[in-house]
Amino acid sequence: MAGDLVLITGGTGLIGIKTIHLALKAGYTVRAAVRSQSKGEAILATPTLKADPPGSRLSFVIVPDILKDNAYDEAVRGVKYIIHHASPVTKGDDLTPEQFETHFIEPAVKGTTAILTAANKVPGIKRIVITSSVVAIIPWEDLIMREVDTVFDEKYECPVPTGPYSAPFQAYAASKVKALNATRNFVKDNHTTWDVINIQPGFVIGDDELRTDPATLCESKTVALGLDSALGVDMPRPMPGTSVHVADVSKLHVEALDPKIEGNQNFLATSDGVRGTSWEDAIDIVNRNFPQAVENGILPNNGHAKTKKIKIDASKAEKVFGFKFQSYEEQVKTVVKQYLELSGIPVA
Is the peptide bond before 159 cis (omega within 30 degrees of 0)? Predict the structure, then answer.
């Protein structure tokens, strides 16, 4: 409800910054949990907030270490809702397998249980919306290694992986399975006065107002899935064909606060129906929409990509929330447009 106070964690991430913008636009008062004062200043410096300053409707609470005991105890006081984005992302190519547990799994699980534990200590909280992932419901072998005819939906439960993990993405996927399982167990084992909704997106692609240098856009590995082909970068291995626009993911998080949406359920978020995303389509999308940039050599548009097909049915979310997820074409258009604009190149 407009004016209600919502705590948003992970506000300097790709999804989080868009969620802050949308929550303010929807009329909520936002308290953003950030790791430092400079992170809060970066949020305030985004074009959306400079154009329409939120004033007292946006405040910050510093949580420097989400793994610390009682990390969120002060942050949750007085809030009615929580949107919990904060979790490790799929960076970590320089890590050894021995470090995967401490880099991916422990922060994902403990960060989630910390927010739930803190919420259970105070009165007045009605709902917690958590960013999960499609990888939380799909076994690793089905996601990456083998072709299956299974159509995965919200009812599917993935066995909890035990490791060891051979790659950062595998450890990331395991962290999402374990965090989802930890959430489920917490709600089952504790008397809570609030409910939980998990939003489970595919690879999230779109613009990021916190990025001011075009060279940094592909530091987000999911955004790179929409931009690499245009920049002439080859995909090193086939990737599961599941993606969603960042604006749609943030919209789901904010609209999930509405009490008209029944709690204690999950919503998948992937575009283009069960067919999913074909990464190879990016070349044609860029040729159609940015022909001048391709012709001038600004966009080489010759990167090679390959899709590992996976069938995911996200129609439940589209039906309940009443909107259709934007296509992979829209995702690519958004991120390429931002890249060109940050490079100082006019876009029609």
Answer: no
**Distance in angstroms (rounded) separating the CA atoms of residues 17 and 21:** 6
Strand-pair partners of 62: 34
Write down the residue that tokens 């050894």 correspond to: 96
Q: Cβ(4)–Cβ(27) under 8 Å?
A: no
Runs of H (alpha helix) within the chain: 14-25, 37-44, 47-51, 100, 106-119, 140, 168-189, 221-227, 246-255, 282-289, 291-295, 315-321, 328-342
**b or e along 213-222 (b: 16 or more beta carbons within 10 Å of the residue's beta carbon)?**
ebeebbebbb
Closest C-alpha to 214, from 192, 231, 229: 231
DSSP-derived letter for residue 325 is: P
Of 146, 211, 286, 185, which Cα lies nearest the Cα of 14? 211
Cα–Cα distance for residue pair 75/118, rounded to 1 Å? 9
CA–CA dist 126, 124 (Å, integer)? 6
pLDDT digits (tens, 9 = 90+) for 194-218: 999 999 999 999 999 999 999 999 8
Over residues 155-191, the pLDDT tens digits come to: 999 999 988 998 899 999 999 999 999 999 999 999 9
pTM of the model: 0.96
Q: Which DSSP string corresponds to 232-249?
A: TPPPSS-EES-EEEHHHH
